[in-house]
Recover the amino acids of this structure.
């Protein structure tokens, strides 16, 4: 926890942006210090994630690549891109047919909801991620926003864990 609690503010902001690109989330995490435990850090992250307004959610989503892409369409730092590649490693072994279907599902999702399909991809295959995307296309926008925030919270927790491990 010392890496988070004792870090200079500007350095911590940069590290936290690798976890989540939403500035409101970053600021909430900075002002919430000190954290007494990892559980307290993760709980603060969950609260900051669910509190994101539409602008904050848009910022967070801009920091994530499409499932199957190597880097986010709107930038992102090297650490975040590397983490995304690791999280999506199950997609790397997929056949061309599944990747083509996944690209089409991504496009349908973006057309329906106006943003990248966000899912915690860690440990999941391309076929599973494709099935999840297709199922979520049936959600109404309000339901999908709640699902996206839940997936973002999972990703933020994973990335905070990697940050604490010094990755």
């Amino acid at each position: 926890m010392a890496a988070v609690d004792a870090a200079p503010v500007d350095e911590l902001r940069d590290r936290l942006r690798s976890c989540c690109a939403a500035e409101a989330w970053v600021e909430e995490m900075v002002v919430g210090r000190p954290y007494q435990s990892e559980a307290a850090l993760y709980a603060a992250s969950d609260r900051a994630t669910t509190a994101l307004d539409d602008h904050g959610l848009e910022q967070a989503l801009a920091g994530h690549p499409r499932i199957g892409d190597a880097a986010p369409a709107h930038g992102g730092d090297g650490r975040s891109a590397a983490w995304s590649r690791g999280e999506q490693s199950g997609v790397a072994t997929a056949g061309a047919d599944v990747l083509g279907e996944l690209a089409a599902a991504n496009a349908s999702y973006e057309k329906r909801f106006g943003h990248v399909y966000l899912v915690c991809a860690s440990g999941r295959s391309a076929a599973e991620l494709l099935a999840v995307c297709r199922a979520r296309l049936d959600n109404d926008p309000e339901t999908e926003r709640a699902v996206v925030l839940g997936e973002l919270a999972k990703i933020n927790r994973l990335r905070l864990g990697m940050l604490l491990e010094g990755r």
Observations:
- The chain has one domain: 2-164.
